[in-house]
Amino acid sequence: MFPGKNHIDMVCMVAKVLGNPTDSELNWLPKDTDAYKFLRKVCPQGSGVNLSSTYPRASSACLDLLKALLCWDPQERLTASDAQKHEYVKHYYPREPPPPPEPFDWTFDGFKPTTKTVQAKLYEECARYHPEIRARDGLSPSGAPAGGYPMKSEARPDRSPRHSQRDATPTKSKSERSITPVPGALNGLARAAMRFRSTTPPPNTGTPRSERRTSQPGVPDVRSR
Description:
Layout: H1 7-18, H2 34-41, H3 51-54, H4 60-69, H5 80-84, H6 115-129, H7 132-136, H8 161-168, H9 185-199
């Protein structure tokens, strides 16, 4: 209906078509709110457009239904049940009115939303469709123990066939695990090992420094003199 527009542009376009509301049409909206200031300062001021010129082929009953549904004041706006009985659509209304829907029960929302209560509500909702989780967690079918619902740390291990097969498979040690070499990595390791050997000092054999002899032939040992 409003392609590429945000909510501000939508309200402005509605005000451009319906006209800026009068004070009597905004009695339900407090004057110190941002919404009231927005309608008075931002929305375009005017009387709106004539719906009969916008929809020249529409009948008078159709235009009357549009005006009744497009009221700024929600108290004066036509309700859904009354709109079904309007002259423009009353021939679609069944001869035997359907039974009215039952009022929605919001009592489930009457609790303080703490972490534990939300977890308990979520657990109860899951248990309605999967009652087997109560037996899995050691809970009675009618409720939770005094200690509360099982937390993540208290959850029992998964004993599915996949999990059991994984447990039955012996775990290899680090030395037994096969390592797939990366191409070019062995050459880099060989070069690093050669550099390490060239920079590593010879191991200490326990011979005192004064008794060591040079291994190069033809070079006199001057330290014994």
